[in-house]
Amino acid sequence: DVKVTQSSRYLVKRTGEKVFLECVQDMDHENMFWYRQDPGLGLRLIYFSYDVKMKEKGDIPEGYSVSREKKERFSLILESASTNQTSMYLCASSIAGDLFFGPGTRLTVL
Amino acid sequence: GEDVEQSLFLSVREGDSSVINCTYTDSSSTYLYWYKQEPGAGLQLLTYIFSNMDMKQDQRLTVLLNKKDKHLSLRIADTQTGDSAIYFCAESLNNTDKLIFGTGTRLQVFP
């Protein structure tokens, strides 16, 4: 069965902290994505990766960076968390247009 | 830029049909998708339609595509309380796996 896991379901951090959100998929997919979901705005793409060590900016990359050192793992990094990054973060991997999503990480920045 | 729009809320009585509408902008999208998000969960692919089709039926779900108007709809027949969720339509950008999602429609089913 297809599986995308995210390291935490809930996370609370303070302004200025460095935050790591981890995502792992076990389907050998080449494509991986990070989205954030906010009420009334839907899902917005932060970064995506089509291969190991490869990354491309999505629609809202400011304040974020990513790392893809291994095919199965795609990490989202908030270098210095801010309150406007409080959101639900969804990771996905894909093949042939079918995206498989993780359960999400609800991040609160105080 | 590309934009996908949906109404935010829909409320229906159990047993009635639900129709969720979506408009999109990228006319080159080969596939258009409907995803479902249940409370506290990630998104799950519900169904999709190939752009050269007008309609696709899958059990209680019917997808209608009007390419001329760039309008996509999802009809759920005999709506059940278990159908309560947020429904997202999505188009693929330049026929890649990079999807542009709508704002999501929250469907509430009441007895």
What does it look like?
The complex is a heterodimer of chains A (110) and B (111). Helices cover 0% and strands 56% of the residues of chain A. With 110 residues, chain A is mainly beta. In chain A, the strands form two sheets. In chain A, strands 2, 4, 5, 6, 9, 10 and 11 form a seven-stranded mixed beta sheet that branches. Chain A has a four-stranded antiparallel beta sheet with strand order 1-3-8-7, with no helix packed on it. The N and C termini of chain A lie far apart (37 Å). By secondary structure, chain B is mostly beta strands. Chain B is 0% helix and 55% strand. Chain B contains no helices and eleven strands. Chain B has strands at residues 5-6, 9-13, 18-23, 31-37, 43-50, 55-58, 61-66, 71-76, 85-92, 99-101, 105-110. In chain B, the strands form two sheets. In chain B, strands 2, 4, 5, 9, 10 and 11 form a six-stranded mixed beta sheet that branches. A five-stranded antiparallel beta sheet of chain B has the order 1-3-8-7-6, with no helix packed on it. Chain B starts with a strand and ends with a strand. The mean pLDDT of chain B is 91. The interface between A and B is medium-sized, with 26 and 25 residues.
Shape descriptor of chain B: globular
Counted beta strands of chain B: 11
Gross geometry of chain A: globular
Q: Which chain pair has the greatest contact?
A: A-B, 26 and 25 residues
> Over all CA atoms, what is the radius of gyration of chain A?
13 Å
| Multimeric state | heterodimer
Sheet with the most strands, sense and barrel status of chain B? 6 strands, mixed
Number of helices of chain B: 0
Strand content of chain B: over 45%
Order of helices and strands of chain B: EEEEEEEEEEE
Distance between the termini of chain B: 41 Å
Low-confidence stretches of chain A: none
How many alpha or pi helices of chain A? 0
Helix proportion range of chain B = under 10%
Approximate strand percentage of chain A: over 45%
